[in-house]
Design goal:
Layout: E1 8-16, H1 21-34, E2 38-44, E3 53-61, E4 72-77, H2 80-86, E5 90-98, E6 112-115, H3 118-124, H4 131-142, H5 147-158, H6 163-183, E7 202-207, H7 208-218, E8 223-226, H8 233-241, H9 243-246, E9 249-252, H10 256-268, E10 273-277, H11 279-294, E11 299-305, H12 322-327, E12 336-338, H13 343-360, E13 363-369, H14 370-374, E14 376-382, H15 397-401, H16 446-457, H17 459-466, E15 471-473, E16 480-485, H18 488-505, E17 512-517, E18 519-521, H19 525-533, E19 538-542, H20 548-557, E20 563-566, H21 575-585
Parallel strand pairs: 1-4, 4-5, 5-6, 8-9, 8-10, 10-11, 11-13, 12-13, 16-17, 16-19, 19-20
Antiparallel strand pairs: 1-3, 2-3, 7-14, 12-18, 15-17
């Protein structure tokens, strides 16, 4: 099919770090988003301080898009290495924009070659550093997008640097656009876009980490401590930028041990507190996690996963920490583990995490990963008041006066005891990391130990009844049921939509549905058993080596999933891979 007939286009920009690759992609992405397109942006970069090959890919669509594709329509090659590495990804009839590379050979016969003198045009319009902006104009021409809308986004992006910088960048973009009009007037990838979206809520274009930070602010989080660790670091950056207007204390600790320690201290003092890191940093936090559990201090911990063990692949993606967070820290204690599947879910789920942590006085672990944390998502219907967050479990000064003897760890049917914070009259108590009695005094008595363990674990049944069930997408009855968790959601959802269209075209009635688990612990046994127990064929999709969710399902329900699609090379699932696997299993 000619790509002029498509309603989605994939653009990849590649080159050496320092070329402004992601900056250019984001400017184009935001301009397209403002015009009504839906966008998904995905970046790849090596774990180097400087240099290395970087790419940023935009999938642009008139309808929902939540994933990246292996195949692309347009490649912008800012160096020769980009052309060599990504040539095979360009679809027949696609485009490559380059600067003076010797590509005129039979190898490129099915691809439209756009030789654009990026360097010269940049030099003529402000300097070599403007190459990425020149390329922006060229990309606008290729996809038949209004260059004035790109210029408007350039102005927003560079306004803080002064009018001269804004003017130079606008001129550079316009020069790239005009060069293609003059020399390649017949070369267009997409025409007749019908921009515009209808939504009852707010529309945003942002990363999963940005959405998480926004959700934390919405939840009333007023203390966040972290040590920078890819890919969780930008949560720290976003909160720092917004700390004054939102009255949140943001603390960059000297290490992850300190980060969880001060977060627990802030929560003990009455703050709504959280901390965030990646797997290696979470490893350092696990003793502190046990401290929060023993003292029944509310705490939200974000773990944005990357490939491990040790330093692993610091800038790539993985889902290898599920088993780790389910059992992290010594001993036994209740916890909640959740994993959003996209930026919108990250915004809402982090709010619920803070509510649950305070209500049940347990640690809540939120699992992200690099794919979710650093990719750019379109949210088309965000409702900031959807989650009615509230603070629970505190005794007021007046209530404390009516209590004959305050017991911080009073044994209750629910397992939850009322909280007083330091400084409240009559609320004096110990927050003791040893096993303790109801007042907090250390105790090694057998009966007290058993009573306090039973008290803490009494919460699990009530927590299980409050967490929402996994979402089943598609028909209740299907020939193939896909199971996944976290960030695989977007790729599977987009793949299912394409497969549905394919099967309609070829009159194939095979049906596929998708069970997505956001709430991983306490495990939703009944819902998972109900769906998978009647499934004809099941496919497990995970970004790890051992199929950790599959093993958890087997452990909790007795259902063994034989068809596993596991990917653990640091890359996310590409849409085509899921489509091929679905077609293989539904022939």
């Amino acid at each position: 099919m000619d790509i002029r007939e498509k309603r989605e286009v994939a653009i990849k920009i590649g080159g050496e770090a320092g070329f402004g690759i992601k900056a250019a992609g984001l400017i184009l992405g935001r301009a397209l988003f403002q015009s009504g397109a839906e966008i998904f942006g995905y970046s790849e970069y090596p774990s180097l301080i400087r240099g290395g090959h970087n790419t940023y890919q935009l999938n642009i669509s008139e309808g929902p898009v939540q994933s990246t594709t292996k195949k692309i329509d347009v490649l912008l090659a800012l160096d020769k290495k980009t052309a060599e590495l990504h040539k095979a990804e360009i679809k027949a009839g696609g485009f490559i924009i380059f600067d003076g590379l010797n590509l005129d050979s039979e190898d490129w016969a099915e691809i439209n070659l756009i030789d654009l003198p990026l360097g010269k045009i940049a030099e003529d319009n402000g300097g070599l550093m403007m190459r990425n902006t020149v390329a922006l104009g060229a990309l606008a021409f290729i996809i038949d997008f209004n260059i004035q809308l790109v210029e408007a986004e350039i102005e927003k992006n560079f306004r803080r640097k002064g009018e001269a910088v804004v003017k130079a960048n606008k001129q550079a973009a316009r020069a790239g656009y005009d060069y293609l009009i003059k020399n390649y007037s017949a070369k267009r990838a997409i025409t007749n876009w019908s921009w515009g979206r209808e939504t009852a809520g707010e529309s945003l274009f942002l990363t999963g980490n940005d959405a998480t930070a926004e959700g934390m602010l919405q939840a009333g989080c007023n203390f966040y401590a972290a040590y920078p660790m890819t890919p969780a670091t930008s949560i720290l950056h976003t909160l720092i930028e917004k700390q004054k207007e939102n009255q949140i204390v943001v603390h960059q600790a000297e290490d992850e041990i300190s980060a969880i320690g001060v977060a627990i201290g802030a929560s003990l003092a009455g703050a709504r507190a959280g901390t965030g890191t990646s797997g290696g940093g979470f490893s350092l936090m696990v003793e502190g996690l046990g401290l929060a559990a023993m003292t029944e201090t509310p705490l939200v911990v974000i773990n944005s996963q990357r490939p491990a063990p040790a330093t692993g692949l610091p800038t790539w993606t993985d889902q290898g920490d599920l088993n780790f967070v389910l059992y992290a820290s010594h001993g036994e204690f209740p916890r909640i583990v959740v994993a959003p599947g996209d930026a919108e879910e990250a915004f809402y789920l982090i709010q619920e995490a803070f509510d649950w942590s305070e209500k049940w006085q347990v640690p809540v672990i939120v699992l992200l990963d690099k794919m979710l944390s650093e990719s750019d998502f379109t949210i088309t219907d965000l409702k900031r008041d959807k989650i009615k967050t509230k603070r629970e479990g505190f005794l007021s000064d007046e209530e404390l006066k009516r209590v004959a003897q305050y017991k911080r760890y009073e044994i209750t049917a629910s397992g939850v005891s009322w909280r007083a914070v330091p400084g409240q009259e009559g609320g004096v108590h110990l927050a003791n990391s040893d096993e303790h009695d109801e007042e907090g005094f250390s105790s090694e008595e057998a009966d007290i130990r058993q009573q306090m363990m039973d008290k803490r674990f009494a919460k699990i049944k009530l927590i299980s009844g409050e967490l929402r069930e996994p979402e089943l997408y598609g028909e209740s009855e299907a020939d193939l049921t896909i199971v996944g968790w976290g960030s695989v959601k977007g790729t599977i959802s987009d793949a299912l939509e394409e497969v549905r269209k394919q099967k309609l075209e070829i009159n194939n009635s095979k049906r596929v549905n998708f069970l997505h688990l956001n709430y991983l612990w306490p495990f939703p046994v009944e819902k998972v058993r109900a769906v998978l127990g009647k499934a004809k064929k099941i496919l497990l999709v995970e970004n790890n080596k051992t199929g950790q969710l599959g093993e958890l399902i087997k452990q909790q329900t007795g259902i063994e999933i034989k068809n596993k699609f596991l990917k653990y090379d640091g890359r996310p699932f590409f849409r085509e891979e899921i489509i091929d696997k679905i077609n293989e299993l539904t022939r």
